[in-house]
Protein 1
Amino acid sequence: MSTETGRAGERSLFGHSLRRIILYVVLVGMGAFYLIPIETGVMTSIISPETYTGNFPYLPPLEPLVPGTGEFSLEPWQGAIDGLGQGLVNSVILVVPATILSGLLGSMAAFGLTTVDWRGQIGIYVLFVAGIFIPYQAVLVPLTQFWYNVVPLRELFEPLAALPLVEAYHWKLVALIITHTAYGLPICTLLFRAHYKKLSDEMVEAAQLDGASVATIYRRIILPLSIPMFAVVFIYQFTQIWNDLLFALTIVQFGDAAVVTQELVGIGVSQSGTNFPLRMAAALLAALPTLLVYIFFGDKFAKGVTA
């Protein structure tokens, strides 16, 4: 009896070990599947454009030791920094205030639609939900007419151009900030509203009995409890706004106010051909801010999604 029990235990232990091995193999395979394209991009970005052949893009530049792999060079990265420098600055000027405004205004709107009772609340909530389903392409022409013909933002911004660090073309970035804030407001509101629906009503009722105003309740109770959801909204909005190209092409078009996604379109392309190392270095450089955001705030994003 004890022998059979021992054999059953051995088979169970072997099966458990086999499952763990299979799981590790699957995870390693999935990791390699997703990381090989990134590794290929990194290797391509450090090859001299003059020696790039594209034969072995996944191998490091090892010429003359391995023919066809190219010579090591940081020239593509230097060219990417020079070509995308102004676009990176413009994107930072755009993304930071647009992300903060859309998150903060979405939190306030969700608080007003969840905790405070007032007439017409359901109708306003329906409008927020409908705003999520408006495609970008449907508003491009009205948006252009609005910023260039209806609202004289360029004329209003001219007196501010005399201030330090302010340029005349920054009015286009201000228009982009307002546009992305307005377009991101519905999804931010719904995310915060889902979070606020789970909060205890007793806290708000107790604060109201103590005579706290709506602004005090939001500032001292709701806002501190919203930090995990702010992490989710900020990361989501940062990624969406940083990677946007359609609104930038519509409002900014081209020129000194071009953002990084616009600068990325034409970099490394000329009549003589395509400079693949330069384009790959530029693509990695443009994606670096969003990658850093996920690395440094990924744990808060996970906690916010869980909450």
Note: The two ends are 50 Å apart (CA to CA).
Protein 2
Amino acid sequence: MKIFLITASILISLFVLFQIYTTMSTHKTETQAYQVIRVEKNFEIRYYPVAMMAMISSTSKSYRDLGSSGFGKLAKYIFGGNDEKKQIAMTSPVHMDINDTTSTMAFVLPSGYNQDDLPKPNDSSIAIRASEPEFVAAVKFGGFASTDRINKHIAILQESLKEAGLSHHGNFRFLGYNPPYQIFGRRNEVIVALNERELNLAKH
């Protein structure tokens, strides 16, 4: 019994240390740049400048299916699966647009890269593109994401935008900031594009 307790204590200590290390590593990971324009009651209004992204398209209709089909492909690209066998640093967040037509998953590429100096993916299903600059509304939530939790926060954001008198366009998108093995301090977000003209009017 004593040996069991000692072994369990060691394993728990190692697990806690690993989670602390993972959380600290996540904080050191480059995060996609944005500017907070305004903080509302239940959401933020942000401006995102252009960013380079590696993206796959999929027929998946759920968070789990899109993640399992897309993450490995994109990870292989940045870990050397390209025509230069080049290692590209992981950044956050991972973008997921889950819808009933064509879903997409994208890795944001480090800010030091542009269209001309990024290596070509070996996998032809991966597209390298520049995102459009945009204003978005963003709502945050913790814990592990799921299709149900994402949909719940889409509904929260929809209602919050309605109360604020702001319209939106395009699909609601999910942003995930943490590796799947991180348990504590997880960060998830749902975003949607806003009309810039409305924001200008709302400021005055």
Note: Strands lie at 35-39, 44-48, 52-58, 94-97, 103-108, 126-130, 134-141, 168-176, 188-194.
Protein 3
Amino acid sequence: MSFLAVLAAASMHAIWNALVKVHLDRFLSITLMTLGMGAAALVTLPFVEVPKPEVWPYILASVVFHMGYRTFLIGAYKAGDFAQTYPLARGTAPLLAALGGVVVVAEMPAPLAILGILLLSAGTLVLSFRGGAHLEKLNLRAVGFALGTSIFIASYTLSDGSGARLAATASSYAAWLFVCDALWALVLCVVSRGPQALPVLARDWKAGIYTGVLSGGAYWIVMWAMTKAPIASVASLRETSILFAMMISVFALGEKMTAWRGAAVLSIVAGVVALRMG
């Protein structure tokens, strides 16, 4: 059940990434999505438990890690070809999460799971370079932001996996995390862009709610799955969102299916099978 749920979450993740490109700049687009996620979670607070004191450090740490993730993500947009740097970050993050899982939560993946993580990461990295056709365009600054993004992804994955396991339910952890993250994103937006940014965000509130629900729902499924399965395996399976994004680009946007993309797809599918068997 958790295996299929994470695959569904990956498809939702790909969809909201495709939809989040409203006419706002990148910082405001991500802020808008985060606020929409918090608004959706806010209505659920009366129905979930307030986190225990020992859970709050994980929530607060995750808010910090998510802030770092968004900061480096925007930097990756500016520094290089985002179509390459973002998948580079997503492909590296499961490897870091797997290593971190061994140290932080003493979780050693099974041999087949390790193979699945490697195959998924390899396929994602191949997709990020589109067969290496644009590899020469990557610069050290872009790579630095991509790897920084992957560190923050792995960090909030481990923090949220541990926190959700410690909380009364994954739902209570997720709801309070999303609300806290949205509040901090709002403060950061006002400080960095001024109060005049608020009416700009308000004009696209529907897009914020829609992408926020998709994003929040996808990550809630991931946090729930991490209470049922090893964190590294769930984190790796989540990155099949890159595969769904590629399918959207080919079948909906008319982009070409190259031989390298086909090889990447086979690697990702093989990784999914190995994770399922592991």
Note: The chain has a mean pLDDT of 82.
Protein 4
Amino acid sequence: MDGTLLDPDGEVPATLWPLLRELRERGVLLAPASGRQYATLARTFADALDGMPVVAENGTYVVRDGVELASVTLDRATVVEAVDALRALAGTRDVGVVLCGKRSAYVERTDAAFLAEARRYYAELAEVDDLLAAQDDVLKIAVHDFGDAETGTAPALERFRATHQVVVSGPHWVDVMAAAANKGAAVRGLQAALGITSAQTAAFGDYLNDLEMLDAAELSFAMADAHPRVLERARFTAPSNAEHGVVTTLARLVGVDVAALRAAAR
């Protein structure tokens, strides 16, 4: 979504909606795959959710037509250890923690600056006194670093890498997830469930949480301004999100005229 499908203002390109209609007529499924919460993605695609698989929370939660298809959760011991470590980090670094559950996301930091960042990605967001008191299945722990996440928060979580996924999902976000969880695993599960091969799959990404997903698709595209490791990993390059690269590339793949999409979007 961010840096890939959404434009620099965080909006869905208007041309996506007529393209979705064309894709459906051709029997092509579009599946949003994001670090964002399911509720947030469902709100964004509210008028197109029928039959649409949604890969939420960086692959830890997959839903279609309101039914959970797959999920990967964190055990209680890891949640406690990670939250304690991040509370300690907050004493020396400007970070905020989001505990991401199936029903809601939870925060105990409630200043305006952090809540503004969290609410961009979590439509269902509960403010609590104690993250560890939240009663929910925990999909991941997301950390917003007001500095550089890759050089700041990520190294502080290094000890979790041996047993869990610690992935930098944006310039200011790091996620802690179960070892088996990533967008690629979720996409491969969807492919198996729907009888779709990697040769029939196109994937687009811009950041480090997209790497495994790109591996799951023979038509793998890095956005033109993607992280250097993403550009190295993908087989092809798409125009940037500012140029609506996902829409224009998909239109080319299925033989839809982009000018017609622009006309239909007016």
Note: The chain has a mean pLDDT of 96.
